[in-house]
Amino acid sequence: MRRYFLLLLTLITVGLITQSASADDNNSSLPTNYFNQDAEDASSNDFSFNDSDQTPNNQKLAIPQNTPTPLEGIRWRKRTILIYMRTTDPQLKAAFRSAVKKWNQVKVIKIKWTKNEDKANIIATDSDLSAHTSNNGVGYQTAQLGETKTEYNPDTHELQKATSILDPYQLDYTNPNFRSEVAQHELGHALGLAHAPEYEHSVMVPRNIRNGITKQDRKSIRLLYQ
Ligand SMILES: [Zn+2]
């Protein structure tokens, strides 16, 4: 089991890429980084939330400075965030469900499960991350337990989409509590948290995960979303 304390969790922040076929349209002053969401919403969505009408979507989101747990500088515009369970692995589903409950206990954001993948802000999925395994330069191999990719609008700091991935093979022989903590870490990225230094008491310490969401993590999420 000690082996797992050496494993590395990596955030992959994928910058929003908007070089689509309609790149010429991007010259308008309105943010055009919503890809196809508008089309999807218009065609299929009789029950859409209307809260997007209340705030202009091109308004820059404030990101606080000096939070106890570092931030990526991005966040969701709404505090109700929809998540879709794409993995069918029972252990990973349990881990994601547990992690969602833990983050919701902060009481500032509400992560809600949706059965509509198209509407989801966060995708909870699995992948064999061993292809990413690399030598970290200090003499031993590291492997990822999880990974989160985020897409965001760099002008407004607004998260558009996050995909949190857990590796079913790396996590197979760990215990449910540890798997939940890894899922809490990945969802932390999906909410806008960055890695915390090793000496801090945070779920966002990238290696050597030894705890779930801490007081400083809760405080940071409060500062980010309140
Ligand atoms: Zn990480």
TrEMBL record:
> From which source organism is this entry?
Limosilactobacillus vaginalis
Recite the UniProt keywords alphabetically. Hydrolase, Metal-binding, Metalloprotease, Protease, Signal, Zinc
Which GO BP terms, alphabetically?
Answer: proteolysis
Tell me the Pfam families matching this sequence. Answer: Peptidase_M10
| Record domain Peptidase M10 metallopeptidase: where | 89-225
List, in alphabetical order, the Gene Ontology terms for molecular function in this entry.
metalloendopeptidase activity; zinc ion binding
- Which residue intervals are annotated with compositional bias (Polar residues) in the record? 54-69
EC? 3.4.24.-
Task: Write down the superkingdom of origin.
Answer: Bacteria
Q: Gene Ontology cellular component?
A: extracellular matrix
What protein name does the entry list?
Matrixin family metalloprotease
Keyword match Metal-binding: yes
- The ranges of region (Disordered) come to 45-70
SUPFAM superfamilies with a match to the protein in the record: Metalloproteases ('zincins'), catalytic domain
Secretion signal: which residues?
A: 1-23
Is-annotated flag, keyword Protease? yes
Question: Under which main EC class is this enzyme filed?
Answer: hydrolase
